[in-house]
Amino acid sequence: MAGNSFGRCFNLTTYGESHGPALGGVIDGCPSGILLDLDAIQQELNRRKPGQSAIVTQRKEPDTVSFHSGIFEGRTTGTPIGFVIENTNQKSHDYSHIKDSYRPSHADYTYDQKYGFRDYRGGGRSSARETACRVVAGAIARQVLRGVEITAYVSSVGTLSLEKSYTELDLTQVESNMVRCPDPSMAAKMEDYIKEVRSKGDTVGGIVSCVLKNVPAGLGEPVFDKLHAELGKAMLSINAVKGFEYGSGFQGSTMYGSEHNDAFNTDGTTKTNHSGGIQGGISNGMDIYFNVAFKPVATLIQKYETIDKDGNIVEMQGKGRHDPCVVPRAVPIVEAMAALVLADFYLMNKIYQ
To answer: How many CA atoms lie less than 13 Å away from 51 in the CB half-sphere?
Structure first.
């Protein structure tokens, strides 16, 4: 299996399965001498871990990270950083009923077609549990990017959407509720909606919005390695993501060029920011902002028809512990992937200095 590594200068390779003994990763290219806040890294994992509230999967995992290399006396050494996150609460028997059948809209069928074999326990390698490794690496990347602020939040759940721009919201309130929506009134509505959907054995999707502040101008490469292209790849690599837009996004296609162009101020900043902080694939120093759309979780706790490995129509019902809506737990994952992209381009940019 290829495709387990992300980044060039700041590179992460992950390994492990949802119901294996552990997940882990190796970070290569992290600069030496960085004093790491290990508590901050664990806190990011705590934001992603299962069982943290009443509206997420109730699988209980401490998700405690253990570092095995690349750190000495609290500082990075410049050598590969190896880490492990043990799985402690697997219930593989919850998936025995899908051993010979394929869940709709999961990776079951495609993995079997590609490899001729699959780990059906929780989706194996295709499980979103792999993203815990990304959160560890992203937390370290954030500490490389001193001064850069990365804040994601839930802006939509199903048909419930915030109509306000991020500039009108108090982003310090993101962690004040279990939905991670910075508008308390909308957060309460979203929470009730998710609970209602869960009671029906169904699921719902949503949108995570993200803002990157204090990003220096000059990050990103022309043509194929544009900053927004790498951000798009990073976000679309997250489980359940179906869409990515930055700046004015799709709405920009309805505007005239005369109203979409970002006029300059004398100091190089712009009067508007429809470009989303990126022009020509390179950061211009303005805020970078984007939206990431997540589909409804594919596992339904209700009966439905599917096929088995022999092509027979069979009846199935989801079992186990699953998120009725993935977006609240996706917030730290979106932030982590954004940090990995920025750290990679930050180190790459040092070539020109």
So the answer is: 8
pLDDT at 120: 79
CA distance 264 to 187: 36
Q: What is the average pLDDT score of the chain?
A: 92
Give the pLDDT mean for 47-72: 86
pLDDT per residue over 78-105, tens digit each? 999 999 999 986 555 556 677 888 888 8
